[in-house]
Amino acid sequence: MGSAEAAAAWTAWFDRLGENLADRGNPVFTRHTLGEDAGTQLGGYTLVTAENLDAAVALAKDCPMLAEGGAVEVGELTPLNRGTRAAADVSSTVGEVG
Length: 98
Description:
Belongs to the YciI family. This protein is an alpha+beta fold. It has one domain. Helices cover 32% and strands 16% of the residues. The strands form two sheets. Strands 1-2 form a two-stranded antiparallel sheet. Strands 3-4 form a two-stranded antiparallel ribbon.
């Protein structure tokens, strides 16, 4: 995925995502698997916003990784944490200094 053509394909996809693109993400170059290996390898991530999982899957169907013979996993995030703190802890410390 290091060619100029690949970079252009990714840039074009990001552009097509438009307002749905939350974070272009980053590729993963080195990895280590803990536990049972499911046979898949994390290649990177991109965060999008969508009305629901089906809409997110529709956005992912144009991902350049698929044209390269790779796979894309799409999942819905459940906000349980904010930064380094649990979301429940954040609401109780709003306005707190120190």
